[in-house]
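Dock zinc ion; give full complex structure.
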Amino acid sequence: MEPSKKKRLTKRSGNDYKSTIRCLAHRSPLQAAIHRGKRYIVFDRGYTSWGEGETDWHAIGVAGHEIGHHLASHVFTSELSNHAEELVADQFAGFAMGFLGARTDQALTLFPGNRPASASHPADADRRIAVKAGWERGA
Ligand SMILES: [Zn+2]
């Protein structure tokens, strides 16, 4: 992302985030992680195509979700993931996709199904509401 766009995204998101988030290609589900005090987005290079010519909004949304966990400092807490934290990260994913030019239908591809809530994650329908709320702020 070009520096001026990154600065505008940071300002518009309301985060005065100064640290760097590094990406680490690894055979692992995409996730936010802390290693030796540094923030990482860990992803499987074989799984994540990033679109290769055509924008893969789902992949961008998943990465945005993990960045949202970092921005909200969820990775520093020892608590298990909970629904509220997931919805905060979903809102940031929607915000980022809106800011980067996704249409609302493209942003909502992040949770296309109808999975019910689990112990760790909200239902897809609730997640789409969070993504759309974030998208409306970012677009
Ligand atoms: Zn999450």
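Observed: The longest helix spans residues 83-99.
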